[in-house]
Design brief:
With 338 residues, the chain is α/β, with parallel strands linked by helices. It has helices spanning 15-29, 40-45, 53-56, 80-90, 102-113, 138-159, 174-183, 197-211, 245-257, 277-295, 315-318, 327-335; strands at 2-7, 32-36, 48-50, 95-100, 118-122, 162-167, 187-189, 214-219, 261-265, 301-306, 309-314. The chain folds into two domains: 2-136 and 275-319, Rossmann fold (3-Layer(aba) Sandwich); 141-271, Phosphofructokinase domain (Rossmann fold, 3-Layer(aba) Sandwich), CATH 3.40.50.460. Strands 3-2-1-4-5-10-11 form a seven-stranded mixed beta sheet, with helices on both faces. A four-stranded parallel beta sheet has the order 7-8-6-9, with helices on both faces. The structure holds 6-O-phosphono-beta-D-fructofuranose.
Length: 338
């Protein structure tokens, strides 16, 4: 078979191990694999890349994606779906593997309904994709954010300050929740929780009296009590980094507590660097499974992690509904805000 592969949406650590897993497994079946560059844009434009054993052998520890990526939505482009079908035919692609999050896999689902033989591999540092217990990219990016918080602790302690760390994660609070608990933050703000600024500041004042510093982790996607209008991408997502919630929260804390407060936004630093062992293993397993799925004709589905098993689930179940932080998790989080 001739298999096409693409990576779409934001890059994250684990994409290269997933591509490698696909190519290694494809060799077992005697398949040829080619990559399409820059996500769905590569399929629209016919931009391809050879993917042989030699091309992927040494990329297990590399962050980003050798296939490049974009946030192109072919359904927002003139004759987008038609051009994709034409190129699949032109390059004699028997089946396609789309590696991505909700947006990329949503496009894969729509194409599968048009008859394309497509399977999905889930990724996102936000960990907000339904149907998979974890997505690769999340573990590494949280590790980076915890490291950042650890460094901020030194400065907060030395200067007797409060420091706010803003992390990514979009409308789901998984990244902030894990960073805050694993990094020992004194307050954590996630989009799924109601924000009570008075309670937060009262608590931080108490913390400050006890240990003369405090750390706050805030998710970029929290609801703010102000009206906002921001730039949106082709999938309708607002560019959350531009809201500057970290600065905003730091100003509120400084004003309400009178304590010197600073903020830092980790931004895209969180998305780069070598994937953790967990992400390498997960990505490799999910990628290899995608090739098995193609040979079992499980089209319109994606590989996913359930417990410690790699299973397959319909793309329909995974896309269109964000996996939010549950009430139980928020209650658990509160145990550590003392
Ligand atoms: O979805 C991954 C993510 O890193 C989000 O956490 C963040 O809001 C967004 O991508 C940033 O997108 P971009 O790289 O296009 O600025």
């Amino acid at each position: 078979m001739k298999v096409g592969v693409l990576t779409g949406g934001g890059d994250c650590p684990g994409l290269n191990p997933a591509i490698r897993g696909i190519v290694f497994r494809a060799i077992d079946y005697g398949d040829e694999v080619i990559g399409f560059e820059e996500g769905w844009n590569g399929l629209l434009e016919g931009k391809t890349m050879k993917l042989s054993l030699n091309d992927v052998d040494q990329i297990i520890g590399q962050g980003g994606t050798i296939l490049f990526t974009s946030r192109t939505n072919p359904f927002k482009v003139e004759r987008g779906p038609e051009r994709i079908l034409e190129n699949l035919h032109k390059f004699s692609i028997d089946a396609l593997v789309a590696i991505g999050g909700d947006d990329t896999l949503g496009v894969a689902l729509r194409l599968s309904k048009l008859g394309v033989h497509v399977v999905g591999v889930p990724k996102t540092m936000d960990n907000d994709l339904s149907g998979s217990d974890f997505t690769f990219g999340f573990d590494t990016s949280v590790e980076v954010a915890v490291d950042a918080l650890t460094r901020l602790r030194d400065t907060a302690k030395s200067h007797k300050r409060i420091i706010v760390l803003e992390v990514m994660g979009r409308e789901a609070g998984w990244v902030a929740l894990y960073t805050g608990i694993a990094g020992g933050a004194d307050w954590i703000l996630v989009p799924e929780d109601n924000i009570d600024f008075d309670a937060m500041c009262k608590h931080l004042k108490k913390d400050f009296e006890r240990k003369e510093y405090a750390l706050v982790v805030v998710s970029e996607g929290i609801n703010l009590p102000v009206e906002e209008q921001g730039e949106v991408d082709q999938f309708g997502h607002t560019l959350l980094r531009k809201r500057g919630v970290g600065d905003l929260i730091a100003d509120i804390i400084a004003e309400k507590t009178g304590i010197s407060t600073r903020s830092a936004a980790i931004g895209h630093i969180q998305r780069g660097g070598p994937p953790s062992v967990f992400d390498r293993m997960l990505a490799t397993r999910l990628g290899a499974k995608a090739i098995d799925m193609i040979h079992e004709e499980e089209f319109g589905k994606m590989s996913a992690l359930k417990g410690n098993e790699i299973i397959t689930i319909p793309l329909e179940e995974a896309t269109g509904q964000i996996k939010y932080v549950s009430k139980e998790w928020i209650e658990f989080m509160r145990i550590f805000l003392k």
